[in-house]
Amino acid sequence: MALPPSDEDAALSMRGLLKVYGNLVAVADLSLDIPTGSFYGIVGPNGAGKTTMLTMATGLLRPDRGTTLVHGVDVWTSSRTARARARQLLGVMPDGMRLLDKLSGPDFLTHVAMLHGLDRDTARERTTELIGALDLQDAAHTLIADYSAGMVKKVALASALIHGPRVVVLDEPFESVDPVSSANIRQILQDFARRGGTVILSSHVMATVQKLCTHVAVINHGRVLVAGTTEQVAAGQDLEDRFTQLVGGRHQDEGLSWLGN
Ligand SMILES: Nc1ncnc2c1ncn2[C@@H]1O[C@H](COP(=O)(O)OP(=O)(O)OP(=O)(O)O)[C@@H](O)[C@H]1O
Question: Which residues does ligand 1 sit against, CB inside 6 Å?
């Protein structure tokens, strides 16, 4: 089947992504273009296929079919040079990312930066800046194994940014993060987008998505239900109400009457 042509200005262009687990089609021939410089929210109910789609789009999970271009570079090409280029362009924070937790936050970040080819001095400089920007100074000598969930999230985010990617893909970046840190993270990401970077994030918090994102795609059953600017998708409503209208699933009957009796 011919795929729709990809948008040449897209930062990330997903083309016909498919993932099947047994009888379950987790992601169903999904195509989506993410414009350069956008702050793009991916939303959808639990099990909709968001994580599966984003991990395939970023080179972490091989699709059964389809591929993704990041600024025109094929993430799933057989060329090692092109794959390495795609890795440089992308900064990724997957859901439930495993970190080297026997290292402190700064040691881990310096390690990641050097794996990306940065020299030790630059790696250390950027580590210090990110640790400061994410309010992790007090935990600089603590092993990641002893960090709270929110602190782990912040180190994971820093590791997605340290090599200076052009596109960052973040699965639930604000989950478990305190409100002040959330505001700092939002600021970092908004500055990045203002300078021409592209941010793609998945979230269940519609108020955050509506406030922050220039564009939104609503995913359900592995497909894009609707995508466009946040204004277009919200269609004059609160995004949360629009989301509920689009995906359904609200229970009308009272049920669970034994609870609280
Ligand atoms: N490794 C796997 N093996 C089998 N089924 C899987 C696997 N990974 C995901 N799935 C299934 O694929 C579907 C999509 O899962 P996915 O994690 O992508 O959803 P999601 O939209 O990210 O959900 P959530 O919002 O709950 O995180 C779900 O039905 C899930 O059970």
Answer: 21, 24, 26, 44, 46-52
**Residue 239, token pair as written in the block:** 């995004």
Domain ranges of the chain: 10-97+165-247
- Tell me how far the alpha carbon of residue 73 lies from the centroid of ligand 1, in angstroms: 27
Q: pTM of the predicted model, to two decimals? A: 0.90
Quick check: helix, strand or coil at residue 231?
Answer: helix
Model confidence pLDDT, tens digit, residues 213-237: 999 999 999 999 999 999 999 999 9
Q: Which of these CATH numbers, 1.10.357.30, 2.30.110.10, 3.40.50.300, 2.60.40.3500, describes 10-97+165-247?
A: 3.40.50.300
R_g over Cα of the chain: 19
Report ipTM for this prediction: 0.98
